[in-house]
User: What shape does this take?
Amino acid sequence: MEYNNLPADAKAKGEYQFLRKALTGAPHGIHQGIYVVTPSGKYLKKANVGWPSLDPKKALSLLREAVAEYRAMSKSERLAAAQLGDTARSMSPRHDVIPALEWAKIRSTTRSYPFEGMELFDLRHPVYYKLDRLWLTPEAARSLVPANLTVGQQSSIGEKALRHLTYDCHLMLGCPPWWKETVKTAEVSVKIVSKKGKLYDLRYVGKFHFDSDTKYNKSSYRGNLLGSAVWDEDKKQFSSLKWVTLGQRNRKELKSNETKSKVHITTVGSVFELDPMRPNDKGLPPHRWEDGYSKAMKQQLGATAR
Assistant: This one.
């Protein structure tokens, strides 16, 4: 869809012109979806079927039909006469954002619990979930552990980590704006419960209460956090970490493009764990990377074009 909003000079370039020609035969022209086209720009198939519940079997069948059509075409018909170069780009290449090796990388998964009247056109339906990331510098990661490494020691977690939990919407679906005035409670404490060598066993307890009635956010959240982790003092990093949160989200104002049920209050849960950094997930920064992270961190990361 971003292509449709490009300025005229970008649309005049080869990349946009190729797409415009290739998707002329598509149901809605240049529109969100998965399409199969030849290098020469001939439209073959729209391969995603069903909304909001996609049909993978039908999609696979369409992909096989597209492959058969492609193979039946002559080489001159299916291949491009000339390659598009960098000067033909209508949009700049995307760059994967690669976190610094020494950062703590945490992944959060959030979804709603079943509720009355739920349907697939409601983003709160439990079939949908949100993946996000929480990146911490070594200093911020260490602030998740009491300064005094003695069994029984207890403290509050550091301000930077708490700020991400509070303002970056890890605890809920969607991401409305929260200001200091709308945060009624945000606290997480950590306690060292045991140790084995240089490994420290930690327990976390927290509670959150947000309530906003602004023009841009008419909602509230109230929930609790429980968690555990093991800190390796030799390596200065976590060898394991798992937090869970459970709360009530009240959408005081229901929006037709987000919700269908008339239910305002739903239960929502989140799980935080060390990010396994699976290949398909690499390059995806935290949702609020641009607005919620410091300039200093952005200067440390790596980036790869794709």
